[in-house]
Amino acid sequence: MRFVIVTGLSGAGKSETMKVLEDLGFYCVDNLPPTLISKFAQLCYQSTSSIDKIALGIDIRGRRFFNDLNDSLEELSSSGYEYEILFLDCDDNVLVKRYKMTRRNHPLSSETNILEGIQKERKMLQDLKERSNHIVNTSNMTPKDLKEEINEIYFSGGKKNNLIISLTSFGFKHGIPLDADLVFDVRFMPNPYYVVDLKEKTGEHEEVRNYVMNSPVSIEFYEKLKDMVEFLIPQYILEGKNHLVIAIGCTGGRHRSVTISHLLYYYLKDKGYRVLKKHRDHTLR
């Protein structure tokens, strides 16, 4: 029996996650009052039950019921029922944008603004996050990325650690990403912007990457960058970090930064890390 409790911040992707789990064969129940969790588990764990994969969606919509969740989890443990918690996290600024885009109110923002509601909810969920088995930060994820991540955890058997690495290319003239943990400046590399045949292309094109990397300085930097990142990632894992944002910038965010982000993405993927790639400014002028 695999008994998964799906929770986290409102707007972080719980509904989408439940859909993915249902596609994976989980029996999904959304917004079950926490006081009923132990009774539901008892029914599912009976030898006559044919259900072997359960996913319960629990969130702040339960309001007063949510306060009973810790007691229910303790009751599960004392009864010998094994369970795991999947916590969906997301950066505050991304959640605010999502709520504004959908024109929905945050469950806790009826008397305050959206950000205050998010911060209040984050504080309420901190203890639950700390006891979670898996933490997925969806800040830089598309629905496709989230689906792949859930499949990796619950279909492919899971990964060795919870760290998700987001590689973000950007242009300095558009500003440094606010959520960046590490920032690397590659404006010293050969610039395809001044080559007529390459100006309108991006670092996603092979000919642009070849131009950028056809330089001893570019090659040496990239090798040193790989060494630096390979040294740092295990340190962040030991620290317990679950989301690392590496931002790589050039002037406009179209050529050099996209090239290095592209190369580093596939390098880290080959090393077995969970990596997301985002080119923030490559379509801007």
Automatic annotation (TrEMBL):
ATP binds at residues 8-15. GTP binds at residues 59-62. Gene3D superfamilies: P-loop containing nucleotide triphosphate hydrolases. It holds the Pfam family RapZ-like_N. One of its GO terms (molecular function) is GTP binding. HAMAP family: RapZ_like. This is GlmZ(SRNA)-inactivating NTPase. It comes from Alkalithermobacter paradoxus.
